[in-house]
């Protein structure tokens, strides 16, 4: 039989408990905001005692940091997939519909929006988001550079910076746009995104 | 001498008091989040009694609604200016640096980010933001349509929808990008934005 001490050191069980807390926290943050949600609300939602939660996360900040890590893992996986394509630039344009659909899913964007609002006032969280971004750019930038050079397009550092930050802004802004215009014409949006992506990547 | 009753009905004084509350609320929302900031925190920041604040705003929702209205007035003014230009499409491209600088100013974006996070969970605020957007689009869209037709470019409804929503996403996303990359190379960003705007507006 598991003793409490053993439970805490079983990595698989600990991971599953951590995920249980994260899922509950996502629900509470969406409902009450990061500042409005208390550790006791999160523990009630997770069906765990507050004391038990503190075994995994010592604060709400630690919970939001875990979301930053999850988001970062998701981005790094997507970048590895991109790097393995025959033609990464063209595939970004071709796959615009998939990225658009993902960005338009409220379950996908509500939490990042809350995280950004919090990062704007919480330097520790902003710092974690920035570090994750530096890591992602260190993976993304060489792909764009290599592929532009392969096509004989300008690929100096300043140009790459500007094009990449514009391109990423485009996707960061889509959930905000969807919040303002819930019934967006999806195919028309795909056309617009392809026009912009093509200009940014292939000219 | 003003009596309290007279004070409440003096429109100029009422407006100045409303602004005092809004400025205090902006500080409190930035510091504590919309859910974390209480009416009593806002009244303390404004140097007014909580009871006095309720003369102007009957809830925090009413305060955030007033921010939606202010934002909307700002957008409508910008659209009138745009409409008065000789060449509105070219001027949007030329004026990218000004819009970028505005979007990169934390005082400009912290509150909208908080409003969006709140709108994602508060249907009344989402509804107000959507209504303001419908009004803005009713002003923006005919300008783009007229100018594209003048240049002999396609201007059917679906295309206009997609191009405009892509373009607006670009600017919605910039503050989020700036949060991730505080030291963005501004001139490189201007180049990227111009490339995207030119493709969206002039092709």
From TrEMBL, chains A, B:
InterPro entries: Homeodomain-like_sf, HTH-type_TetR-like_transc_reg, HTH_TetR, Tet_transcr_reg_TetR-rel_C_sf. Transmembrane segments: none annotated. Keywords: DNA-binding, Transcription, Transcription regulation. One of its GO terms (molecular function) is DNA-binding transcription factor activity. Residues 15-75 form the HTH tetR-type domain. Coiled coil: none annotated. Residues 38-57 bind DNA. PANTHER family: HTH-TYPE TRANSCRIPTIONAL REGULATOR BETI, HTH-TYPE TRANSCRIPTIONAL REGULATOR RUTR. This is TetR/AcrR family transcriptional regulator. It comes from Duganella callida.
